[in-house]
Write a structure and sequence with these properties.
By secondary structure, the chain is an alpha/beta fold. It is built from nine helices and 15 strands.
């Protein structure tokens, strides 16, 4: 169980792992995630299921090397065993035919967007996807996204691929030329904040898949709490998707800095 059967580097710091986990593959739906732990005393980290193959009994995870545990997971090789994978967790995306869906993914946020794009297309929607990253080498899963999108616009900060500019510019280009019935945004919190401000201006219902700090994944610890519509919600059990226009993104951005060394230093000095 949980044996790595495929590994691919999508960039220097982003790795795709295909893992044999038949029970999770069978139950998984778009929007679900898993909690991964390496070793008995290892740290627990949440990872969205990018795709699954029920016939092969595998799930695909995309890992960006950021902290100690993400490095450990990403450095595993084919044949290695991941000691603990819990899931599928969270609430699945509400997939239904609504008309035209505008999907916006930034950086590794493209990974959790991938199964949603597929599911929305299979539900009979027109799907337009905007992918964004700092540069060309950070655009991931493009072929898979194109397979299930009616149109794909790529935005890069440095103009090395697609169009030069921000994800919001690509989105607004689409919004100004056709009616959008639903928008879905996944990526860095700051990106989701500004994409939701854009869609709010045009009164487009928008879902954001939040990436708050998470520990147990079952709602017990409260580490992933966010404020949505003035109420406290838990990303791991109530989400990860919420009405983007109701999310307090400024609070979320502050909470994401909780373990930032610079933030801790400033706190101690105050």
């Amino acid at each position: 169980m949980n044996k790595i059967v495929e590994k691919e580097y999508l960039s220097d710091k982003v790795v795709k792992l295909v893992i044999h986990a038949p029970l999770i593959a069978q139950k998984r739906k778009a929007g679900h995630f898993v909690i991964v732990k390496i070793g008995e005393k290892g740290e627990r980290i949440p990872l969205t299921i990018s795709s699954a193959d029920t016939e092969k009994g595998t799930i695909t995870l995309i890992i960006q090397k950021v902290g100690v545990t993400s490095h450990k997971v990403a450095n595993l090789e084919v044949g290695d065993i991941i000691s603990d994978i819990s899931g599928p967790l969270g609430q699945p995306t509400a997939i239904k035919k609504v008309g035209t869906v505008l999907c916006a993914g930034g950086g590794v946020g493209i990974a959790p967007l991938n199964p949603i794009v597929e599911a929305m297309k299979k539900a009979g929607n027109k799907v337009i996807t905007v992918l964004a990253a700092r540069s060309k080498d950070l655009i991931i899963l493009e072929d898979s996204i194109r397979k299930y999108s009616d149109e794909v616009i790529i935005m890069t900060d440095d103009g090395s691929y697609g169009k030069k500019g921000l994800v919001t510019e690509g989105m607004e280009e689409i919004i100004n030329r056709e009616k959008i019935d639903l928008a879905i945004t996944i990526g860095p919190a700051i990106m989701m904040k500004y994409t939701s401000l854009l869609t709010k201006k045009y009164n487009i219902h928008t879902l954001a898949s939040l990436n708050s700090i998470m520990v147990d994944g079952t709602g017990m610890c409260g580490a992933c709490r966010v404020t949505v519509g003035g109420e406290t919600r838990f990303v791991c059990v109530d989400g990860p998707e919420f009405d983007a226009h109701e999310v307090d993104f400024d609070e979320l951005l502050l909470r994401l800095k909780a373990y930032n060394p610079a933030t801790e230093k400033n706190t101690k000095n105050n």
